[in-house]
Design goal:
Largest sheet: 8 strands, antiparallel
Strand order of the largest sheet: 16-15-21-12-13-20-17-18
Shape: elongated
Strand content: 25-35%
Length: about 675
């Protein structure tokens, strides 16, 4: 039987050391000569990742360990790039969750674990930077358990030399190991005095395992030492069934604990058969591929990164996507960071880049069969929380900008591009300030397009406070037929949200029937830009009376007269500015709730209330109403107040009058309408 090829996601909070762990794994397995430093790692290949010292997209690398192949996917840790993680997870067999024994970072860890729980991904927890927090390692289980709804199972305890951790005792093997810099740990005799602690901690581990193994529970009660094979079988079974999360520790930077982690993956992590079962994929059938990332390379064009779930895929084969598109695979590339090499074929379990599948999107399922496959995973775009208006520095780049943004949105579906004709804005929305900054930097580095950014503008409206009337006459005589129209108009405000209403109260045919429609058309056209310079809403216009000329009256004349009459009437009716107000639902750790409510009140917002977040212990949801104009940097400050984990959703709620200095500031930026 051929050795299986597993796909393992490396996930965890921002700056937990995921990329360093990937480097340590690749070095330990001989895939690279030496682990890279920040800025030169396999996972730090893009200029944006290196500039900001953080992963901004998944990185792929394959290694072999004890005869088995693993493709590791180093996923970004920032909440702003979580959409990439959601695309990758369905096709993975398991995940390594990299974290720290740091209470301040528990909310970020909880977000990561929730993503894995939602996707049903088995996982190991690797506590990184163990050499800097030995004291916390002793209490790591109690510290980290609140972040996981699945029981954590401590597999190791630290070996101490003074105040420093120098190795560990493996509770399953009952062996002690001393760490060696960038090398496998050395097995040593169990130090004097450690046996009682080892026995107590091992018994605790076995008790957890016995929760799902009655025979093991009977052995413990009878004080019978379980066989090692049974212990490891239980560890593997509970990991694969999602009943427990094994916890190991070490240091990615120094290569500590990496070999034990790899052995746990090799012996205990599920493989492709379990992943197929989770996704509802049968073993027999046409080749099947799950697309987990889309890339646009500088010279090779579009690359769809996918994992082969069944069968084998060959270069040149035609594939059909779950979105209905059909294309031919122009090439296959096995990836290693920014580099890769062409291969003629990829087998089940392997991950590769599929070239020139222009009609295929991230999260689609592909097959070589003739029928359109069902999608194995759904990837709805999250609601945006931050937006910018873009403007090219060089006008000649206008057309190129649209094409470049389309490619960026293909790579990252959580980027949303909108042309807002009313405001004259090209709006780019996403998951945070860094998310959009990276997108703008990619426009420059990858496509050579420089853009200026500014806060996205707000779609203000105007209405009137009271009724008013006006009479207007449009009359011109320029030789031949002239222009004549006379209208008497009344205006009144409507309840908020009613829009526009036109009423005809003309009697006696003072305005001929064919020109009634001209007056309505003129009134509707006028509402596109009222006296304050914004679209007019919640307005009723009534045609009361008028006059026409048998020869000189026309559609254009009555529309012109209507515009003149409405200019006068609305000026007398108390025009007022309206701003959109959003209903905002903020999810934050409970310790930051007071800060979140302070952000609302500082933005002219209204707190509607807050309550515990359903299903999230230690989190709150704050409900509020906030003017859209005050939302510009809310996500930046909310993330700052919540150690990077706070977020919100919004929906339009209503429009409210805007007066005082805030209104004056808006009007000062808006050219007002000229009469005539």
């Amino acid at each position: 039987m051929a050795a299986q090829h597993r796909c393992i996601a490396i996930v965890g909070p921002f700056q937990s050391g995921k990329t360093a762990l990937l480097e340590a794994i690749l070095h330990r397995t001989g895939a690279i000569d030496r682990p890279g430093r920040a800025g030169s790692r396999v996972g730090d290949t893009s200029p944006e990742a290196r500039a900001h010292g953080m992963s901004v997209e998944p990185a792929f690398a394959t290694a072999r360990f004890l005869g088995e192949a693993f493709t590791f996917v180093d996923c970004p840790g920032s909440i702003e790039f979580a959409h990439d993680l959601r695309a990758v997870l369905p096709a993975c067999d398991a995940a390594i969750v990299v974290c720290e024994a740091d209470e301040r970072k528990l909310p970020a860890l909880e977000l990561t674990l929730r993503e894995l729980e939602a996707a049903g991904i088995p996982r190991l927890l690797f506590i990184n930077k163990a050499e800097t927090a030995p004291g916390s390692l002793r209490d790591a289980l109690a510290l980290l358990q609140p972040a996981s709804r699945v029981p954590l199972l401590m597999r190791q305890i630290p070996l101490m030399e003074g105040e420093a951790a120098v190795g560990f005792i493996d509770l399953a093997l009952e062996r002690a190991f001393i760490w060696r810099e960038q090398a496998p740990s050395e097995v040593v005799a169990l130090p004097d005095g450690e046996l009682p602690r080892e026995k107590a901690e091992r018994y605790t581990m076995l008790e957890r395992l016995a929760d799902h193994d009655d025979a093991l529970m009977e052995d413990l009660i009878a004080e019978v030492e379980p066989q090692a094979d049974r212990v490891f079988a239980d560890l593997a079974g509970e990991l694969r069934r999602g009943q427990a999360v094994s916890v190991l520790f070490g240091s990615a930077e120094h290569g500590h604990g990496v070999t034990r982690l790899l052995k746990a993956l090799r012996h205990e992590a599920p493989g492709l058969p379990e992943t197929r079962a989770r996704l509802g994929v049968t073993e027999e059938g046409a080749p099947l591929v799950q697309v987990i990332k889309t890339l646009h390379t500088g010279f090779g064009g579009k690359l769809s990164v996918g994992r082969v779930l069944r069968g084998a895929l060959r270069e040149g084969e035609a594939v059909t996507g779950s979105g209905g598109g059909t294309a031919r695979v122009a090439g296959l590339t096995q990836l290693a960071g920014a580099s890769g090499h062409r291969v003629p074929e990829v087998q089940a379990g392997e991950v590769a880049g599929l070239a020139k599948l222009d009609c295929v999107a991230t999260a689609e399922t592909l097959t070589t069969g003739s029928e359109t496959p069902d999608a194995l995973a759904q990837l709805p775009a999250p609601d945006p929380v931050h937006a910018l208006a873009l403007r090219v520095r060089d006008r000649k780049d206008d057309v190129r900008l649209s094409a470049a943004l389309t490619k960026l949105a293909e790579e990252d579906p959580s980027l949303i591009v909108e042309h807002r004709a009313e405001l004259g804005d090209l709006r780019l929305s996403g998951q945070g300030e860094m998310h959009l900054r990276v997108a703008v930097e990619r426009l420059a580095s990858r496509f050579g397009i420089g853009v200026e950014t500014e806060p996205a503008r707000v779609a203000y409206r105007e209405t009137i406070r009271g009724p008013a009337e006006a009479r207007a006459r449009h009359k011109k005589q320029t030789g031949g037929h002239g222009q004549f129209a006379d209208v008497a108009l009344a205006v009144r405000p409507l309840p908020r949200g009613e829009g526009f209403v036109f009423e005809d109260e003309v009697v006696g045919g003072a305005v001929p029937r064919q020109y009634i429609a001209s007056v309505e058309a003129g009134a509707r056209a006028f509402t596109a830009k009222g006296p304050l310079g914004f679209p007019v809403v919640d307005l009723a216009v009534t045609l009361k009376d008028g006059a026409a000329h048998a020869v000189d009256s026309s559609d254009a004349a009555f529309q012109a007269a209507t515009r003149l009459g409405l200019e006068e009437a609305l000026a007398k009716a108390g025009p007022v500015l309206l701003e959109p107000v959003l209903a905002v639902s903020m999810a934050v750790p409970s310790g930051a709730t007071a800060k979140a409510t302070g952000l609302v009140t500082a933005r002219r917002g209204q707190i509607l209330g807050f309550d515990a977040r359903p299903g999230w212990s230690g989190w709150d949801v704050v409900e509020a109403l906030i003017p859209e104009a005050e939302m510009t940097d809310l996500i930046v400050e909310l993330r700052s107040a919540t150690a990077g984990v706070g977020t919100f959703t919004t929906r339009f709620d209503h429009r409210a009058e805007l007066t005082g200095r805030a209104a004056e500031a808006v009007l000062a930026r808006q050219p007002v309408r000229r009469a005539g």
